[in-house]
DNA sequence: CGAAGTGTTGATTAAGATCAACATGCGTGG
DNA sequence: CCACGCATGTTGATCTTAATCAACACTTCG
């Protein structure tokens, strides 16, 4: 399912990826279609990724198919860093997604020579850890309504508080992120809609307008 | 509640702490009594810690007191690394605990000069992240029995499979680690005992003998 | 057009939480 | 040393939240 857009698109990188890898590293652009796998749990970790367009979910599965989504990645986000040789989870494009890819070994070579890059890398991993710590609190101790409120606030913040945010993920994805069923997510959203805390636009129920962020913040524990 | 054992006990460190901090760093030994706080969420992060004796829980609280324990730390484990200036969670001694303490700033100074130390540090944070990822799967998607089975297997592994393991933490601690109530933890343990998968020794119900690790592994999803 | 995917809502069930009672261990102070 | 109070742990009864089962509407896409 991997489509190389433009093999000749190798060029010096910029942005956060440059900060960790140094200015000399090169990268390529790739496209993934909606639902396609970027890498699988247990696969050899070859690249690191930065999203330029689209959205990605990373998740783990139990043997019987139960799924826990660790995190959603949006444009600008990087993922796929691994300490070991293999990926610890699966990454999939939620919608049509464009990513920049850099060889992991290039990163490793570039790193020790650049103390600043090394610090950036630690900062990046720490950021993920911090998110995971907050998410453990959510998963272990929040109610369904609190979870959904927290999710909306997280997305609102990461999308820079647009008037109407367009969620790339389905109700099932949200449920698997929050440790709920899709029905429970749907019911919680209906409650928030009935309470005039949010409003849906369009026909797909994925375009959400936040009417009362304060009330929402109070619903999140 | 902090008791300095021996102020004059500064000496060169060894072990994992030396690996990240370099051989020149110094550290002190401290004791904390059962239940006392080592550092609090939001406090300025001054030190990093390595346990030489005892056990520590790190947790986050919601405003109404609901608690989520991120992790248990046992002898040899290090904790208290922070990227930011403040601690993201609280750390408490579960039982009488002895720790080695090193100034965080010493670590930071020692780091850039030592590429190997920097890599060790990344490895350490990654290890924590990996644990958090596995724990999110547990919290979000496992049943109570699966959670308790996974907990026992984790502790068994970390205590190097002793004949009888002595759990330092209470049922409530276990519950707050697994996102359950203490009653549910107690019931799950009773089921495992009735199924001859484990046996309790002594009077406190904290000394656990693993009778059938394979069966236990099958109960963990 | 039909089929599959997505989302909402209602009815019912089940897992785990809550409420409660009781047993035992342990530390403290008389 | 014992008595008391508190912490800890188990078990039972009941309740609540979210899961499950189900029906239906709408969209999208081949």
Low-confidence parts of chain A lasting 5 or more residues at pLDDT below 50? Answer: 1-11
Gyration radius from CA atoms of chain A, angstroms? 18 Å
Give the count of helical stretches of chain A.
7
Structural class of chain A: alpha+beta
CATH superfamily of the largest domain in chain A: Jelly Rolls
For this entry, what is the oligomeric state of its chains? homodimer
Spell the H/E element sequence of chain A.
EEHEEEEEEEEHHHEHHEEH
- How many distinct beta strands of chain A? 13
N- to C-terminal separation of chain A?
A: 41 Å
The CATH topology of the largest domain in chain A comes to: Jelly Rolls
Shape of chain A: globular
Mean pLDDT of chain A: 88
CATH architecture of the largest domain in chain A: Sandwich
Summarize the structure.
With 221 residues, chain A is of the alpha+beta class. Chain A has helices at 15-21, 104-110, 115-141, 144-158, 171-178, 182-194, 213-219; strands at residues 2-4, 11-12, 26-32, 37-39, 47-53, 56-61, 67-73, 78-79, 90-93, 97-103, 164-166, 198-201, 207-210. In chain A, the strands form three sheets. In chain A, strands 1, 2, 3, 5, 8 and 10 form a six-stranded antiparallel β-sheet that branches. In chain A, strands 4-9-6-7 form a four-stranded antiparallel β-sheet. A three-stranded antiparallel β-sheet of chain A has the order 11-13-12.
